[in-house]
Specification:
Oligomer: single chain
Order of helices and strands: EEEEEEEHHHH
Number of helices: 4
Distance between the termini: 43 Å
Strand content: 5-15%
Largest sheet: 4 strands, antiparallel
């Protein structure tokens, strides 16, 4: 894995959308390898996000800043894999910890360390979000 694959290349649109493939080692052992056309995880626990994946950035009381981009991408993609049944629900703890660790790595120390309410709010919001969102494919009209 090269360092270039650890960079998030994104454009604004959905709120953010990847312009190049991205991968991140999570340390998570998936229930089974899989995902969808944009987000997958293999047996090695490496999260793979395909170019074109869209996500909404920071959630809850967190603020969208450049230092939140990579952390929110990894977190949102992992929660999507949880909803898809690729990653166990219990691994939310690891996903939330990765959010904090990536925030610290990317310079958002205030949000990640001293503002513990952000971490607590993300944990609460994540649990609520997991309960509210159906993963069924819908059609319109």
């Amino acid at each position: 894995m090269t360092e270039d694959l650890h960079l998030v290349h994104y454009t604004e649109g959905y709120l953010y959308q990847t312009e190049e493939n991205f991968e991140w080692p999570t340390g998570i052992k998936p229930i089974a390898p899989g995902g969808n056309r944009f987000v997958t995880m293999g047996n090695d626990g490496v999260l793979f996000v395909k170019a074109g994946y869209a996500w909404d950035g920071a959630s809850g009381p967190a603020i969208n800043t450049k230092s939140f981009v990579r952390a929110s991408l990894v977190h949102d993609a992992l929660y999507q894999l949880i909803r898809l049944g690729v990653v166990a629900t219990d691994d939310r703890v690891i996903a939330d910890r990765l959010l904090r660790d990536i925030l610290i790595k990317d310079g958002a120390r205030w949000e990640a360390v001293r503002a513990q309410w952000v971490y607590a709010a993300v944990r609460w919001f994540g649990g609520t979000y997991m309960q509210m969102h159906d993963t069924s494919v819908l059609t319109a009209p």
